[in-house]
Amino acid sequence: MNINYDYYKIFYHVAKNLSFSKSANELYISQSAVSQSIKTLEDKLGISLFLRHKRKITLTKEGEKLFEYIKPAIENIISGENLVKSIKTLESGQITIGVSDTLCRYYLLDCLKTFNNLYPHIKIKIINKPSPKTIELALLGECDFSIVNLTESTYIDLTIHIIKESKLTFIASHKFEHLKDISLSLEDLIKYPILMLSKNSTTRKVFNKYLEKSNLHITPELESESMGLLVDLCKIGLGISLVSEDSILKEKKEEIFMLDIKETLPQISIALVHNKNIPLSHSANTFLDLIKRNYNTR
C-alpha cells in the first residue's frame, strides 16, 4: 500500500487536535483541503478514522490504533527536521579534531576560542595524539579533521590545507650567555646538552632526516613529547632546546634567546587534513573556513 506521507501528516494533526479548523491553521491550508485529505486517506485504507458529530469529531477505534503508530513516527520526523535545521544554522552539532598537545597550543587555541564565541552550541571534541596518529584518525574518518606536522610522505586519500610554515631553531637560557651573538655550526652544539622532541614526533623525524643529509649526528641529552616542555626546560638551564620559532613567540626575551646557527635549519609544515572521500559536516566546514581565514590560506 503506497499512501502519500502528507495524508498521514494531516491525519496526525487532526487526531491530535480533534479539530479540522485548528489543524488547517497549523498546516496553513484550507479546512476543506484537510477534510478532503482525511476522506482520501479513509478511502485508501478502507476504514473510517473519525466519527463526525455536529460540533466535534472523535477517533474511531481504528483511528485510535492508527494514531498510536502515526504519532511517534510523525513526531520523530519533525524532530529530525528540526535537528537538521539547527545544524544548518549552527545551533547544534559536534566537531571532532585530532591534534597533538604542541600543535593545539600554538596553532589551534585562538581559533577554538573564536569559534566557541561565535557558535557556543557546537560541541568540540579534541583527540590529543601525535601527528602520525591523528593522520590515521583522519584517514579512518574517526575525526572530522586533524592539525598535523607534515612529512614528505604522500597522502593519497587526504585533502591537505597548509596553514603555516615554521622554522626550527635552537634556544638557550642565559646560563649559556657566552653563546649569544656567536655564529655556531651544528657540530659546535654537539658538546652541549641538547633537548629535543621524541624520535616518534614528526618534527624530530624532519630534523633527523636533515642531519642525515648533512652527515651529522646529534644525540639529545633529554627527549620530551611536548615542545612547550622543551621551552620550559630550556628556561631553567637544563640544556639547549630544538623548537619551532612559533613556540617562542610569546616568551620573554630576558629568559631565552635564539642561537645563531650557520646552517639553514629545516622548516616544518603545519596543515589541516581530512579524508577527501568523507564529506565534512556543516559545522566542520565552518570551522575549516575560520582556520583558513585566520591563516590566510586556501
Describe what is shown at a glance:
This protein is α/β, with parallel strands linked by helices and 298 residues long.
Q: Can you describe this structure?
A:
- The protein has 298 residues and is an alpha/beta fold.
- It has 3 domains: 5-86, Winged helix-like DNA-binding domain superfamily/Winged helix DNA-binding domain (Arc Repressor Mutant, subunit A), CATH 1.10.10; 94-157 and 272-294, D-Maltodextrin-Binding Protein, domain 2 (3-Layer(aba) Sandwich), CATH 3.40.190.10; 165-269, D-Maltodextrin-Binding Protein, domain 2, CATH 3.40.190.290.
- The protein has 10 helices and 13 strands.
- Strands 3, 4, 5, 6, 8, 9, 10, 11 and 13 form a 9-stranded mixed β-sheet that branches. A two-stranded antiparallel ribbon has the order 1-2. Strands 7-12 form a two-stranded parallel sheet.
- Helix 1 (5-17) packs across helix 3.
- The chain is rod-shaped and about 105 Å long.
Uncertain segments of ≥5 residues (pLDDT<50)?
A: none
What's the overall average pLDDT, rounded? 91
Q: Based on the coordinates given, report the CATH architecture of the largest domain.
A: 3-Layer(aba) Sandwich
User: Which range does the strand content fall in?
Assistant: 15-25%
Q: How many domains comprise the coordinates?
A: 3
Tally the helices: what do you get? 10
In whole angstroms, the N-to-C terminal distance is: 52 Å
> At the first level of CATH, what is the class of the largest domain?
Alpha Beta
- Total beta strands: 13
Overall form: rod-shaped
The CATH topology name of the largest domain reads: D-Maltodextrin-Binding Protein, domain 2
Main beta sheet strand tally, sense and closure: 9 strands, mixed
Radius of gyration: 32 Å
Secondary-structure element pattern, one letter each: HHHEEHEHEHEEEHEHEHEEEEH
| Structural class computed from helices and strand pairing | alpha/beta
